[in-house]
Amino acid sequence: MKRNQLKLFPLASLLMIFVALILTSCSTTNKINTTFNKAEAFKQGFSGLAVYDPSENKMIYERYSNKYFTPASNIKLLTFYAGLKILGDSIPALKYAAKNDSLIFWGTGDPSFLYPDLPESMVYQFLKNSKEKLYYLPPVFTEAHFGPGWAWDDYNSYYSVERSVFPIYGNYVKFDFIPGLDIPKISPSFFKDNLVIEPDASPGIIRDPAANVFRHKTFIGKEGFTQIVPFKYSPELFVELLADTLKKPVEIIRQKTEGFSDTKTLYSLPADRLYKTMLQQSDNFIAEQILFMVSGKISDTLKTDLAIDHIKQNFLKDLPDEPFWVDGSGLSRYNLVTPRSMVKLLEKIIREVPQERLFTLMAAGGKSGTIKNSYVADQPYIFAKTGTLRNNHSLSGYLRARSGKVLIFSFMNSNYTVPSSEIIKQMELILRKIYAKY
Fold first, then answer.
1. Does domain 37-83+281-437 have CATH number 1.20.272.10?
2. Cα(307)–Cα(299) distance, integer angstroms
């Protein structure tokens, strides 16, 4: 072989490799487009997808990535980022001041106190073992117990507990229906006298909209079940519940917190413990309370708007499209986000949180959380957050391709009329194609 042929051969090889990569990329894009165009599940709704390769700093697939969708619980990724930027490693549980023989305390928004889905925090033992008289000071709280744009008739549903300054027991009552027992087992038992048996009541528990009266008919089923019903929150109820739990008196006082010069903060749980439950189980209650805690850190008021405005102004101005963000959980249909902005947010998160830690917090396909039964593989390749409201379903997160490369994606669907399971089936086909080709 001649010398100039030796020089040309590597160049030709590189050109062939480059052409092959281009053809592979085009082939994958065509296959994805074909799935979108042919799948019945996508035909009546509106779907968008953005897939980004952070190692090459480029989008490798886009479909309506600049259009706004109802993100549902994908909003929790914004809430997660807010917590990362403001709260630090540990959650502030309460603030307190000792004055003579009194311990005066008030809430920070921490959701963990006696919440069954979280480990026991330090708050119970702190209050139980206190030698001083306990006085609860309710801070000024102007928020509605429900967020803007929430469905009012969801008040009886487990996913719609009321927001509050100092939650207790997750702000809900658990009813365990057991075959052979006429009435359910109630936790906390404090509410046992609030149960009303009505022969004509609907199956299960129905709470009065404005009061803690829980109505049901005598249980005669052969299979047991559990129902979680939010209770109607008030500072007075909080104090009663707390006193009943601690088996010691607790009183309410009205005073400005600024009057205490020696205020201290008690911390409860590692922040990651909240984030993991929120992201994997899509816990709305924790999400809403995180924004309260963020607001309490940056101001003296627990107010969702303060937290959202602060995060948007200081940390999210570089998103391609401004998010319309109104609550912590995504229950509101006022929320709107584009897939490409969600991808940018996820890029910011993975730049700040080590991948190993981050992937343990996210739901993993076929393994954990809300995608335990979908995106199944021998080794998880999807680490993401779901978001579902009626006629809306989204999935945004990280895709670890067959090559080991980590891609960032946001797949959003709105206004479809088929069952969400059909949408998810087609989403899985598309994401699997991307997994196989990159």
1. no
2. 9
